[in-house]
TrEMBL record:
Pfam name, any one: PALP
GO biological process: isoleucine biosynthetic process; L-serine catabolic process; L-threonine catabolic process
Alphabetized InterPro entries for the sequence: Ser/Thr_Dehydratase, TrpB-like_PALP, TrpB-like_PALP_sf
Keyword Ribonucleoprotein among record annotations: no
UniProt-listed Enzyme Commission number(s): 4.3.1.17
Domain Tryptophan synthase beta chain-like PALP, residue spans: 4-289
Sorted UniProt keywords: Lyase, Pyridoxal phosphate
Catalytic activity entry: L-serine = pyruvate + NH4(+)
Cofactor section: pyridoxal 5'-phosphate
Full protein name: L-serine ammonia-lyase
Entry-linked Gene3D superfamilies: 3.40.50.1100
SUPFAM superfamilies named in the record: Tryptophan synthase beta subunit-like PLP-dependent enzymes
GO MF annotation terms: L-serine ammonia-lyase activity; threonine deaminase activity
């Protein structure tokens, strides 16, 4: 039994136009609030079968929350090491799932180093985006779309952080005979490690993350994600933080769902009628979710960022 739930696939009346059908895969409805549960659940179950008796994560975001959730369901103790920059809200959500929370270091790099040093013996280290088991788990969202009877998508729209979601979605497309379906990969400016890598023709590392979409804040995408841009049709789209936050606020009214700016980035391409979307009749949007932003926080960002 997988740990994730099967999520609804909705044809959105408010986001579709006469020429374009917008299909929403509502990963925001996974119990820990994001698609991360799919990959994390599959990785945790596999590591447990291979003998792991403890899990260690270094994510202060949705991956850490999903890891804590998986540990509780599997009755495996979880330690989540997060940097000092982690929000009170994220820490609370990790602790709520009964995981041991350790706050360590000024950045993710330091928290991750401590997590690695603790992942010895019968403990498995759970990476937030760079693990083939995660990609296999994420691919299940495409299996559900393929089995749903909905039309074959003409393009898939999703957000990119470290590239785990991108890698999983392409794996899902390939295993459902949809290898020719293009992917539109959206990032926010300041977290655009994939866009810059594609422009440079090699995996680059951003000097810093300057976007508020912290769940997209991987300074470098994983090797697999970059390699897939060479073997699959992937088009990169970059939106501003303001566009991402505005999309989140509109989505609350349109779909009655609150998501993070990380997810708002993909939604912003729809609301902004981005040119990259224009050729496609049926667009599958991965509503990846995220629980680390509150309504008050979204409104505060909206005011602070202003139209740009
Ligand atoms: C993790 C995450 C992403 C980015 O996923 P990657 O696999 O790192 O590319 C996007 N949105 C949300 C809400 C996330 O939690």
């Amino acid at each position: 039994m997988p740990l994730h739930i099967q999520t609804p696939l909705l044809l959105s009346a408010s986001l579709s136009t006469p020429d374009q059908q917008i299909w929403l895969k509502l990963e925001a409805l996974q119990p820990p609030g994001s698609f991360k549960l799919r990959g994390m659940g599959h990785a945790c179950q596999t590591y447990q079968q291979r003998g792991a008796r403890r899990f260690v994560s270094s994510s202060g975001g949705n991956a850490g929350i999903a890891a804590a959730y998986c540990g509780r369901l599997l009755a495996v103790p979880v330690t989540v090491v997060v940097p000092q920059t982690t929000t009170a809200r994220a820490k609370e959500l990790i602790a709520q799932q009964g995981a041991e929370l350790i706050v360590h270091g000024a950045s993710w790099q330091e928290a991750n180093a401590l997590a690695q040093s603790r992942a010895t013996g019968d403990a498995a280290l759970l990476h937030p985006f760079d693990d083939p088991l995660l990609w296999q788990g994420h691919a299940s969202m495409i299996d559900e779309v393929a089995a749903s009877g909905a039309p074959r998508p003409d393009a898939v729209l999703l957000s990119v952080g470290g590239g785990g979601l991108l890698s999983g979605v392409i794996e899902g497309l390939r295993r459902n005979d949809w290898a020719d379906v293009p992917v539109l990969a959206v990032e926010t400016a300041g977290a655009d490690s994939l866009a810059q890598a594609m422009a440079a023709g090699r995996r680059i590392e951003l000097p810093a993350i300057t976007s508020i979409a912290t769940s997209l804040g991987a300074r470098q995408v994983c090797e697999q994600a970059f390699a897939l841009t060479q073997s699959h049709e992937v088009q990169s789209v970059v939106v501003s933080d303001f566009e991402a936050v505005s999309a989140c606020l509109r989505f609350i009214d349109d779909q009655r769902l609150l998501v993070e700016p990380a997810c708002g980035a993909a939604l912003a391409a729809v609301y902004g009628r981005h040119a990259a979307l224009r050729p496609y009749r049926n667009v599958l949007v991965i509503v990846c979710g995220g629980v680390t932003a509150s309504l008050a926080q979204l409104q505060q960002w909206f005011k602070a960022l202003g139209p740009q």
